[in-house]
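All the exercises in this workshop are built on plain-text protein records. There is nothing in a record beyond a sequence line and a structure line. A learned vocabulary of local backbone shapes supplies the integers on the structure line. The question running through the whole workshop is how a given chain folds. Here is such a record, shown just as it appears in the course material:

***
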Amino acid sequence: MTKLTLGSYPHMLGFEQLERLLERTAKSGNEGYPPFNIEQTSDHSYRITLAVAGFAERDLAITVEDRQLVIRGRQRDDTEDRIFLHRGIAARQFQRSFVLADGVEVGEAVMENGLLHVDLSRAVPDTVVQTIKIRKG
């Protein structure tokens, strides 16, 4: 059985990058931590909200790498002077990745009540009709 790719369809030109994005997204294997929401805040904007209780702003890093929004968290170990009788709150690191479509830009990030909000916006494309002139060969 042969694997169907976007390149297998003769009318789908230039979608190789989309195919690579889909493969990369399928392999990302984001686990369930931290939980997150994605909401549409207007026709051309979105907000990703991650529950990052216990993390300070200095413990978080937000980057855009090859059209991927990557949010990383690593808590500092400040337990050297503390004696725990019970430790049920894990201090673990995480990485969450979100693939961004062309034209989606990352705006500001805000920490509020243990939630990290990252705003995204999509550029509104102009509707353009292009006429191609035929020259004599």
The two ends are 44 Å apart (CA to CA). The domain at 32-78+85-122 is CATH 2.60.40.790 (Immunoglobulin-like). The CA atoms of residues 53 and 113 lie 8 Å apart.
